Amino acid sequence: MTHHDKKSITKDGQLLIRKMETDQVETVWDRHEAQQPQCGFCEMGLSCRICVMGPCRIDPFGEGPSQGVCGADGDIIVARNLCRMIAAGAAAHSDHGRDLVEVLEGVAENRAPGYEIRDQEKLGKVAAEYGISTEGRNTAEIATELAGAMKEDFGTAKKEIALASRAPEKRQDLWRRLNIMPRGIDRETSEAMHRTHMGVDNDWQSLLLHGLRNALSDGWGGSMIATEVSDILFGTPKPTPAKVNAGVLKEDHVNVVVHGHNPVVSEMVLAACNDPGIIKMAETKGAKGINLCGVCCTGNELFMRHGIPMAGNHLMTELIIATGAVDMMIVDYQCIMPALSKVAACYHTKMISTSDKARFAGMEHVEFHPDNAREKAYEVVKGAVENFSNRGEVYIPVEPIDSVGGFSVEAVIGALGGSPEPLLDAIKAGKIRGAAGIVGCNNPKIKHDYGHVTLTKRLIENDVLVVDTGCAAIANAKAGFKISGAISHAGPGLKEVCGSLGIPPVLHFGSCVDNVRILVLAAALANALGTDISDLPLAGAAPEWYSEKAVSIGAYAVASGIYTVLGPMPPIAGSMNVVELLTKGLEDVVGAAFAVEPDPEKAAVLMRRRIEEKRRGLGLDAADL
Description:
By secondary structure, the chain is α/β, with parallel strands linked by helices.
């Protein structure tokens, strides 16, 4: 095994890492190696820089300081740091939701040229959940009122956010008893920052409970709003075929890559790339056309709605630039490494940033807003066409492979004949043992895609249906798990069910905000059984997570009753009290807990044990593990 093979399990990843090494261009793996050894205090969550009496650190071995200057001990510091991670992650996803609500309002008020409401049925359904009357009213009136009601979920004083009502009644009652029912999206994040200020909440248990409430304001609030409004504006996803891996780049086309998380930008870029005038312009430059591709979650948004090909996930973003085929990369926000502009400077790729809240040194900034996004998209895509003639050597190392994306909850229920009953029947019969959500990012601490792919393979071969999102979804697509032929990897029961429905054993649920689709499906199954989510044979995992958003996602999954296995250890090992609560104690509080297992083979066993335990609890047969 070469050192390239140790960094990625994918052929395109390995070959492009080798090329960047030959080109003497630094990668994320090089920078990770240069950081070794990383700070042990930070890894354990025992460093504190909240105030300038510090920074302080606690000695985990009891030989040095046991408290910071203010008197905070390890429990307080670890809990405070974790709570702030949740707050940052919740803010990131929820602010994404706010951006989409503003576009919805702009469309309703005719201030967002190029955008439209493509799913009026979902508009009406979501409006009804907010208590908005639709009878005899036009689309613009309904959308205006819905946007206003959603804005109130962010900031207006309320007892409960609206979409928390989607959770099973038993779960809602539990949140109320624990006083963790989210009251407002921005309120919970703001309170998290207040509680973690020096001299405010110094009870580590209280801090962690508020962290769960903050995370719930994301999962059942900001992220859920983001997903629903995206569906209303751009269409609810349906199973859509597309190609994946670095081979989707085309040597004879202008290649435009979108990266980030905001479909407000990527949808307008798609329109510009399809414009006959711009395509003709590309042909005059010697190209055969314009090839739009995605990476990360803004790529997932286009992949699941339009079948736009996916070039890769988080750790592929530098590597695809090294192909020399990317004429322009257009970014919005989240998971965009600042190093990209330095990598692009070594090739011919033009980098464009588009968000007023995300600027990057070395990138040209062309700011997109709902009222000018169409105009700006046409402007930057023309720039990509002009850049085509500046290409040097092109190296596209692999051929693309087939995949299918776009399994929204509506699409899954539709495939089941309009009801979750057939899925429940398959679970009751033991043909499907249960379901697992595999989500999250890539992390250079873990071999690229190894965690996602290995865990998925072990689950589906044991008759566990997998749904995935984000970078995990792209990893599994590249592994070939998202075509009908992938049932050859499945166990006999799952193979039979998926074969009869004509679906793969791994269902693409979308971008990372679309983790909420898993919550909605879980709630539907629980309601159909008259029980709570925590009673279902479900489990979740984030095998390669790295971001604060992932901390919020994991926290709202557990708070919703879904046992969740993490690959990398979160920075909590400095407090055994916090570790004990998160990995065991929460089971008695919210009916689920975290586990940490970096080995995906062992993580699969943990998840299967959980699923079988829940089958026993429901009176179903349980397999021996």
